[in-house]
Amino acid sequence: xxxxxxxxxxxxxxxxxxxxxxxxxxxxxxxxxxxxxxxxxxxxxxxxxxxxxxxxxxxxxxxxxxxxxxxxxxxxxxxxxxxxxxxxxxxxxxxxxxxxxxxxxxxxxxxxxxxxxxxxxxxxxxxxxxxxxxxxxxxxxxxxxxxxxxxxxxxxxxxxxxxxxxxxxxxxxxxxxxxxxxxxxxxxxxxxxxxxxxxxxxxxxxxxxxxxxxxxxxxxxxxxxxxxxxxxxxxxxxxxxxxxxxxxxxxxxxxxxxxxxxxxxxxxxxxxxxxxxxxxxxxxxxxxxxxxxxxxxxxxxxxxxxxxxxxxxxxxxxxxxxxxxxxxxxxxxxxxxxxxxxxxxxxxxxxxxxxxxxx
Length: 359
What we know:
Strand content: 35-45%
Oligomer: single chain
Number of helices: 1
Distance between the termini: 23 Å
């Protein structure tokens, strides 16, 4: 069975983060591993073992200059014993385990680009590097600007464990890459369909500053929850509500104490409430007046690749906005940064990691 191992801030209920500035990197010089040139990198710990199976990488191309017709992806082993963990292995590290064919990014500005490696073997728990480089003739005139950081500032404590980190190098990785600290906007799809990454590269505004806003959830089994928090919400938030989308009936409503606003998030606690498997629930904040507070992140384009759309936190379906419970507008490509407090996640094939849930 394949799993979605996306690690968006807050997925493990460790922390929630602010919407930030998209950062990009220009692949505008030829790359020679260990010597010179530009490279986009993604360091990841493989969640699967696979033998001679496919691997797809999806990256956000923010802009394109000229016609970069030959951009390629290589898979490299991570550092070995005694080597620098911020870089690929030293001995033999200049040669990839496998690489993609030339990929044309000339028309990909404002889109997710797909790189496909037809066959590569990986070992679960081992560290690998994905490296993109531009082999187009005269790369200084023909290059893409690829995202190295998404629409948030910082990440949860779980992210610091290094499941998927994105960075860049301008010197052939002769020194440690830049920004290889937080997860960047990239999605990796393994041969069995397992996904790893973060698909959020843009942001959108609320339809109405007086509307309720929050997150729609649906779980594959009964889950007990006892609270909800949204990032960047002001003291104008009056109540937190949990309601089933069928009929809009409120499951839980909690007035908010203004002292609960710490300048970063507004949080509430409910009596522990069971969310029934297969039913969608909207966890929202209701406001006492107009306010634009609460950041919304999205996937950048109207029709991202299927793997990018699927790489969302477990249980979180998307963003909701509206005035009347049961009639909220639903956007599956966007999310607010928040946390649903889960009191228990029963062990099952659908939730092997028994993770906390948030976005």
